[in-house]
Amino acid sequence: MQRTDISFKRIQQLAIPAIISGIAEPVLSATDAAVVGNLNEFSIESLAAVGIVGSFLSALIWILGQTRSAISAIVSQNLGAGKLKDLQNFPAQAIYFNIALSIIVLFSTYFFVEEIFKLLNAEGLILSFSIDYYNIRVWGFPLTLFTFAVFGLFRGLQNTFWPMVIATIGAALNIGLDFALVYGIEGYINPMGIKGAAWASLISQAIMATMAFIFLLKKTEVSLKLTFPLHPEITRLVSMSFNLFLRSVALNTALILATREAADLGKEYIAAHTIAFNIWIFTAFFIDGYGAAGNILGGRLLGERNYKSLWQLTKKVNLYNIGVASVLVFIGFLLYEPLGLLFNKDLKVITVFYGMFFMVLLCLPFNALAFTLDSIFKGLGEMGYLRNVLLGATIFGFIPVLYFSKYMDWGLIGIWAALIVWVAYRAVALMIKFKRKYIPLIEN
Asked: What confidence tier does 436 reach under pLDDT thresholds 50, 70, 90?
């Protein structure tokens, strides 16, 4: 059997398209935030609403979108073991599993949206805008999870090119629609404000899902015909997905608590936090590109039982991502002022943002290590350990620091200090696990 290529060239072939496709979802939210944050009227309230809804929707997408990693891991491991033909009806069953989950969650939240956003400290005009924005954007949720499932299949097949094409077109379309629908086009489209931003995202998600459907049929031999009995790997998919579900609940508990505490500080603070969070998410997905390469190749190497190459791959992608994070930090300091003004020009909001943005930049090197190892461990199928790490990081790292900083009245700096501790905890725990479990296998 031919050994898996982990050369610099091969890693770039996987990572660069993965970076481009990975930033599509944060681009949707960041574009919405930037466009509504520059409305002539109610810009602060609109920006705050996008931040609150974006945080909640990201939580839902991350919780259920983790099936993408499980699908990718199963396909890549079977590919490495030379058993790809044995998967048969697994892809179709996995995709329908994803769609069913998304529909259940959609209807379990849709009728309680006001209560949910009140728990996140939204009130008055911000609450009204949040409900308007969510009630449109939420219908894109099943479309996004379908697209994610297809991306997982492509990743497992060692292909990140077609996901990149889909994501790039979706992001570009969203940017154009945002300007057209939010601000309007004189004589053609009336300005729709924050609702226009929601419609722009929904239309873009529909186009991406359609393209994913077409490419899956045209570029692979995968059939979407649902047949029974259930494939044996479905049991492992459900187990992996359940562990990733619990993990993502812990992950999003931290992010939602951060948003809630920022909203409690006042509308200028939640607006500034929204700007910081959108930039952080954008860089996180940028960093995740090399993590995706580690995920894809790592699963295949595990299938081959090629532990020496797995260790070499892990060192390479972590080193590359440290370099990427360093460049992003440099760019962040270089564009410190313009980045804030891109989203909002209110003096109070910008002042708060400038006073805490350095914390976002300090977090990036920790992101590089944590997110890269996180992706590699997903490819290795270590979902149970990833679950435990996130639970530990949230319960013993993030929450104590968050509420200590609240007691000390550190404001947004305290919230982001808690996030840095949370990410660093994960990086250290994953490094220890890899050293203890996989390094010894090299010598066996």
From this structure: very high
Contact 68, 151 (CB under 8 A): yes
The string of DSSP codes covering 256-281 is HHHHHHHHHH-HHHHHHHHHHHHHHH
DSSP string, 338-403: HHHHHH---HHHHHHHHHHHHHHHHHHHHHHHHHHHHHHHHHTT-HHHHHHHHHHIIIIIIHHHHH
Cα–Cα distance, 177 to 342 (Å, whole number): 18
Q: Work out the burial of residue 61: count CB atoms within 10 Å of its CB; fewer than 13 is exposed, 13-18 middle, 19 or more buried.
A: buried
Tokens of 376: 């590699």
pLDDT over 60 (residue 2): no
Q: What's the CA dihedral at 81, 85, 86, 87 to 10 degrees?
A: 100
CB neighbour list of residue 195: distance below 8 Å, 6 or more residues apart: 132, 133, 136, 181
CA end-to-end distance (rounded Å), the chain: 20
Bridge partners (DSSP) of residue 189 are 185
In whole angstroms, what is the distance from residue 275 CA to residue 272 CA?
Answer: 5
Q: Model confidence at 273, in pLDDT bands (50, 70, 90)?
A: very high
- Neighbour tally for 118: CB within 10 Å: 12
- What are the pLDDT digits (tens) for 208-253? 999 999 999 898 887 788 888 888 888 888 888 788 778 878 887 8
Give Cα separations from 352 to 253, 268, 272, 336, 413 (angstroms).
24, 7, 6, 13, 10
**Hey, how many other C-beta atoms are within 10 angstroms of the C-beta on 104?**
11
